[in-house]
Amino acid sequence: MWRLIKDILPTRAKLKNKGISLDLLCPLCHLEEESASHLFLQCDLMKFTLFASHLGFHVPLNTDLHYWILKWLTCQDALGSQLFCTLLWKFWTAINNVVFNGIQLEPVRIAEEAMSFVQEYNAANPIKRGRISSSLPNILPAAPRPLFSIFVDVGCCVLGPTTWGLVIKNQDCNCVFSACKRDERYCSRTSHGGGVGN
Ligand SMILES: [Zn+2]
Q1: Is there a domain that residue 51 lies in?
Q2: What's the pLDDT at 166?
Q3: How far is the CA of 183 from the centre of ligand 1 (A)?
Q4: Which domain holds residue 158?
Q5: Per-residue pLDDT tens for 34-59?
Q6: How far is the CA of 85 from the centre of ligand 1 (A)?
Q7: For residue 196, is pLDDT > 60?
Q8: N or C: which end of the chain has fewer CB within 10 A?
Q9: What distance in angstroms lies between residue 135's CA and the mean position of ligand 1's atoms?
Q10: CA 38–ligand 1 middle distance (angstroms)
Q11: Domain named Reverse transcriptase zinc-binding: which ranges (predicted)?
């Protein structure tokens, strides 16, 4: 996270600026140059990872990467902020595994690993959590977590059909049911619905 915020993450775009000659395309989607903005805002694999996570949200359109990260780091949801940072870290690690070890990137697995890491970290650091809680009241959820979280999403292409998606997760953030539906409804411009949780 520190390197990402300092804009010194060694993406291929950064390495090019240092005079290193290499394939500049994103190693995940092979569609655009691998920059930090592409990896964490635009790459479909990142979008899938965030949507598969317990956060279950869409990457906002037309936003600045650093502004977006800053909003997460300063938000009142400490648990969400922890999970967001862990997801980005795990995603970057997964990219390196693709490049250097040939291991396929799996968004759902990254989402599950990130959640497990946060839970394990918080269980091992109860004092620190107490400090955070006392300095920033109401940021850690006191209410019991719901048995299930339901995420619904819809998207449509330009003059294309509409596609609906549904994911139900249990308290451990594991997917227990998923379904999608293609609907022959057409719209005049590209759009995405917002994910709905709980
Ligand atoms: Zn990509």
Answers
A1: yes
A2: 77
A3: 27
A4: 148-192
A5: 999 999 999 999 999 999 998 888 88
A6: 19
A7: no
A8: C
A9: 39
A10: 6
A11: 1-47
Mean pLDDT across the stretch 108-119? 94
Those residues whose beta carbon sits under 5 angstroms from the ion ligand 1 are 26, 28-29, 43
pLDDT tens profile 130-189: 444 444 444 444 445 667 777 777 766 666 677 777 778 776 666 777 777 777 777 665
**Residue 75 shares a structural domain with residue 162:** no
**Is-contact 107 87, C-beta < 8 A?**
no
- For the record, the structure tokens of 80 come out as 């969400």
Q: What is the pLDDT of residue 75?
A: 87
At 67, list the tokens. 């502004």
Ligand 1 centroid to residue 76 C-alpha, Å: 30
Tell me how crowded residue 170 is: count the other CB atoms within 10 A of its CB.
14
**Positive or negative torsion for Cα 33, 93, 5, 77:** positive
Q: What is the largest CA-CA distance in the chain?
A: 54
Indicate if 19 and 81 belong to the same structural domain: yes
**Alpha-carbon span 57 to 193, nearest angstrom:** 10
Cα 31 to ligand 1 centroid, rounded to whole Å: 6
Residue 177 Cα to ligand 1 midpoint, Å, equals: 27
